[in-house]
């Protein structure tokens, strides 16, 4: 039977202290009745003797020490789950905000999730196509993987996130069910409207469950938003056997909300003022990605975070890198050259890529092609550094070829339109087309049989050596 209390002991921002508490437990949900009619909810985050510290999700504005009734519910934070959540928009704690009425839940589940037995995890296989060459070709996203995007203030990560939502799929021939759970934390109203409008206009809104925590929403709500979104994703994946892609933006807002609440509690800060448990909180979110034995679905995560001052050693990207399986890094210099998406290829990687590409998944030449493109683009950097010292005219002919390759690689392979959705075959063929700017003897990362099959060298009318895969644009022009 729920217990009710009248009055509060103290109020400190979003934190409330209640004394004389009996039989309460950590993470228990608490309901407040303010002024006799207004209902708010919170959760217990600390217990000491008969005192409980409670976070109020909607904020403590308007609450006083005498006009508040408090009721302990006896259960942790739960959310009602249903397949009908796809195509709907919710606030940060899972309440519908799209004026389409309440959700009729099939089941309720604790948003904190349950520990997953590592033995029941299956190794991630197969890929998710994003339609973006720099991701699909060089840092392939594998089902069940967690692959963050490291961005910076002013870079087009929101546009990139929206493009991934519009274009993501399991490939051309897959008959499996696929859906997206999108959670935005601390976003401005215009950014939230951009996401809403983009999903609706592109026709993908019906397979997207969207959770929006706005910048003016209570900071405590931001802490629960990714957990609510992941609970929905787990239900769709492991109960409904769907493949779910979860996009979380911006994890920096989540971490800063944690720092703010930690400071209100008077906790001793760690690096950059963040609490010492930042790592474990991030891990509790990221590790909810994966494939569970005996189910037909998977949860794949793309967390997006903005690096303060573009510092990749900042605690948030630093700790994220320890937990996740690679990263996609956005580059401010490429963005300044109007290259979209401005993905910096060399510091980006996908550690699980090798296990979800190749024959039977994408194409037999994928891994060798990616290795050669990485190698060639690294030599482009060396040629550019040398040109900055001695001048481009003094470079050797092969260094000039690498400069030409680098320019074309950035403009045609990394760069693509915000509405351009490339198949995996188009991405791979384009890679071979670009490698044809280089002599065959420079391609030392590719198996000879693969090279014989896919490498084709020809000359354009201007005499410049280039390549074309069978049926590609370069061949057709000739």
From TrEMBL:
Pfam families: ATP-synt_ab, ATP-synt_ab_N, ATP-synt_VA_C. GO terms for molecular function: ATP binding; proton-transporting ATP synthase activity, rotational mechanism; proton-transporting ATPase activity, rotational mechanism. Coiled coil: none annotated. GO terms for biological process: proton motive force-driven plasma membrane ATP synthesis. Residues 131-350 form the ATPase F1/V1/A1 complex alpha/beta subunit nucleotide-binding domain. Residues 9-64 form the ATPase F1/V1/A1 complex alpha/beta subunit N-terminal domain. InterPro entries: ATP-synt_VA_C, ATPase_F1/V1/A1_a/bsu_N, ATPase_F1/V1/A1_a/bsu_nucl-bd, P-loop_NTPase, V-ATPase_su_B/beta. Residues 355-455 form the ATP synthase A/B type C-terminal domain. Gene3D superfamilies: 3.40.50.12240. Belongs to the ATPase alpha/beta chains family. Produces ATP from ADP in the presence of a proton gradient across the membrane. The V-type beta chain is a regulatory subunit. This is V-type ATP synthase beta chain.
């Amino acid at each position: 039977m729920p217990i009710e209390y009248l009055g509060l002991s103290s109020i400190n921002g979003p934190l409330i202290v209640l004394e004389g508490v009996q039989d309460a437990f950590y993470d228990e949900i608490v309901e407040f009745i303010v002024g006799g009619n207004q209902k708010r909810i919170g959760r217990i985050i600390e217990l000491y003797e008969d005192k409980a510290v409670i976070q109020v999700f909607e904020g403590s504005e308007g609450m006083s020490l005498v006009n508040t009734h408090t009721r302990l519910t006896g259960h942790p934070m739960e959310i009602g789950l249903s397949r009908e959540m796809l195509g709907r928009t919710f606030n940060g704690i899972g309440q519908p905000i799209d004026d389409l009425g309440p959700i009729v839940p099939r089941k309720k589940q604790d948003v904190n999730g349950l520990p997953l037995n590592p033995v029941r995890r299956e190794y991630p296989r197969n890929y998710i196509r994003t339609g973006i060459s720099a991701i699909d070709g060089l840092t392939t996203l594998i089902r069940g993987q967690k692959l963050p995007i490291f961005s910076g203030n002013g870079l087009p990560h929101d546009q990139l996130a929206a493009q991934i939502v519009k274009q993501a799929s399991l490939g051309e021939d897959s008959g499996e069910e696929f859906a997206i759970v999108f959670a935005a934390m601390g976003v401005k109203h215009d950014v939230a409207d951009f996401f809403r409008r983009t999903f609706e206009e592109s026709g993908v809104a019906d397979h997207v469950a969207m959770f929006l925590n706005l910048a003016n929403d209570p900071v405590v709500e931001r802490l629960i938003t990714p957990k609510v979104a992941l609970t929905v994703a787990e239900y769709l994946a492991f109960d409904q056997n769907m493949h779910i892609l979860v996009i979380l933006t911006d994890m920096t807002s989540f971490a800063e909300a944690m720092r703010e609440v930690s400071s209100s509690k008077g906790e001793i800060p760690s690096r950059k003022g963040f609490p010492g448990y930042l790592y474990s909180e991030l891990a509790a979110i990221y590790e909810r990605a994966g494939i569970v034995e005996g189910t037909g679905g998977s949860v794949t995560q793309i967390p997006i975070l903005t690096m303060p001052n573009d510092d990749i050693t900042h605690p948030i990207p630093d700790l994220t890198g320890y937990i996740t399986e690679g990263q996609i890094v956005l580059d401010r210099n490429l963005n300044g050259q109007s290259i979209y998406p401005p993905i910096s290829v060399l510091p980006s990687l996908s550690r699980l890529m090798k296990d979800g590409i190749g024959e039977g998944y994408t194409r037999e030449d994928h891994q060798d092609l990616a290795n050669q493109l990485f190698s060639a683009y690294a030599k482009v950097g060396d040629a550019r550094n040398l040109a900055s010292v001695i001048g481009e005219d003094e470079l050797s002919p092969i260094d000039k070829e690498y400069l030409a390759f680098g320019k074309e690689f950035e403009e045609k392979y990394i760069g693509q339109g915000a509405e351009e959705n490339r198949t995996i075959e188009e991405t791979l063929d384009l890679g071979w087309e670009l490698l044809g700017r280089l002599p065959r003897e420079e391609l030392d990362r590719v198996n000879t049989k693969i090279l014989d099959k896919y490498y084709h060298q020809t000359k354009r009318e201007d005499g410049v050596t280039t390549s074309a895969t069978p049926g590609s644009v370069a061949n057709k022009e000739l």
